[in-house]
Amino acid sequence: MGTNNMMQKNYYAVIEAGGTKFNCAIVDEQRNLHAQTRIATTEPDETLALVIEFFQQQRTTFYFDKLGLACFGPVDLNPRSSTFGHITATPKPNWSNTAILSRLKDGLDCEVFIDTDVNAAALAEHHWGAAQNTSVSIYITIGTGVGGGVIVNGTPLHGLIHPEIGHMLIPAPEGIQGACPFHGNCVEGLASGTAMGKIWQQSAETLSDDHQAWDIQAQVLARLCHNLIVGYSAEKIVFGGGVMAKPNLLDKVIAYTQTSLAEYVTFPQGSSLHNIICLPGLGQHSGLFGGLALILAKP
Ligand code: ZN
Fold first, then answer.
1. 57: nearest Cα among 81, 30, 39, 79
2. How far, in Å, from the CA of 5 to the mean position of ligand 1?
3. Are strands 136-142 and 236-240 parallel, antiparallel or unpaired?
4. CATH number of the domain that 27 lies in?
5. What rounded mean pLDDT belongs to the chain?
6. Residue 254 dihedral angles phi and psi, to the nearest 5°
7. Cα(81) to centroid of ligand 1, in Å?
8. How far apart are the C-alpha atoms of 276 and 271, rounded to whole Å?
9. What's the pLDDT tens digit per position in 159-186?
10. How many domains would you assign to the chain?
11. Chain center to CA of 272
12. Same domain, 167 and 231
């Protein structure tokens, strides 16, 4: 993308709102970061007041009138619903039924563009990252929880609510009992950092590279990839999140997916699981730039 010094720079407010922190920034269309802060996710009143204060201060230097909100879910994304822009029933204490969109809109008197954190990250990867030039792509994050966003023809998939790929049921590897309080053996119950901690009785970060946990983890994620490839015909499955940083994990996932699909799927020329299943092109920034993608994708 070329730059034009005569062109006036537009600034945008973006938030990656997560269960532990709100990552807030001022960015421009070229994805330059002009200001950034992280605010702990405590109670809605406290956190949102600090978020609004940060942006009010920044606005005197970097004027903006649009905010992109990549929000942890579940969140009501139906514009015709009376609870549009509300965080709905979340296990995060005190955040259920928070009208996050209208509180930010009113507090900052600006237009707010909202989607789930993972749909927004998926959109950013589609625009600028690993999933460019695809008609169906999926972004999965494996962290304390598991989430997934789906992009079809450049648009985040919503439908009934929004995809909840983290709660897709997965046949558990032998001897493993999933830890999701709702479903037991769903992806989040088997493969999130939280679940790994419960299954192996030690935190995922402290599991050594050769611990059998990583082989089990790869088997679970391969079953997920199998389902996503046959279910969505995904051209790219982008894996983000802290847990995926483990060396060799991605290669193991690819190998187990190959075994699981058992050569049933014929890939188009030039395409293979080695380029379908990949890490983010935007590194740690998929979520934050997701906020920008939500703004720029709208006419
Ligand atoms: Zn679940």
1. 39
2. 50
3. parallel
4. 3.30.420.40
5. 94
6. -60, -45
7. 25
8. 7
9. 998 999 999 999 999 999 999 999 999 9
10. 2
11. 24
12. yes
**H-run or E-run covering 59:** helix 44-59
Contact 217, 173 (CB under 8 A): no
In a domain, 16, yes or no: yes
Quick one: 144 and 263 in the same domain? yes
Q: Residue 172 C-alpha to ligand 1 middle, in angstroms?
A: 13
Calculate how far, in angstroms, residue 62's C-alpha sits from the geometric centre of ligand 1. 41
What is the spatial distance between Cα 292 and Cα 286, in angstroms, rounded to a whole number?
A: 10
141 and 255 inside one domain: yes
pLDDT tens for 128-149 read 999 999 999 999 999 989 999 9
Which tokens is 232 given?
Answer: 């969505």
Residue 144 sits in the same domain as residue 262? yes
To the question of pTM greater than 0.70 for the whole model, the response is yes
Q: Which residue has the tokens 């230097």?
A: 61
Amino acid, res. 9:
K
Residue 43 lies in a domain: yes
User: Do residues 61 and 155 both lie within one domain?
Assistant: no
Q: Are 160 and 133 in contact (CB under 8 A)?
A: no
What is the Å distance from ligand 1's center to 182 Cα?
Answer: 5
Q: Could you list the residue range(s) of the whole structural domain that residue 64 is in?
A: 2-116
Residue 299 lies in a domain: no
Q: How far is the CA of 194 from the centre of ligand 1 (A)?
A: 12
DSSP 87: B
Q: Residue 15 Cα, ligand 1 centroid: separation in angstroms?
A: 26
How close is the Cα of 292 to the center of ligand 1, in Å?
29
User: For residue 292, is it within any domain?
Assistant: no
- Alpha carbon distance 278, 221 (integer Å): 12
The two three-digit tokens of residue 225, written as one number = 């990839």
* 195 CA from centroid of ligand 1 (Å): 11
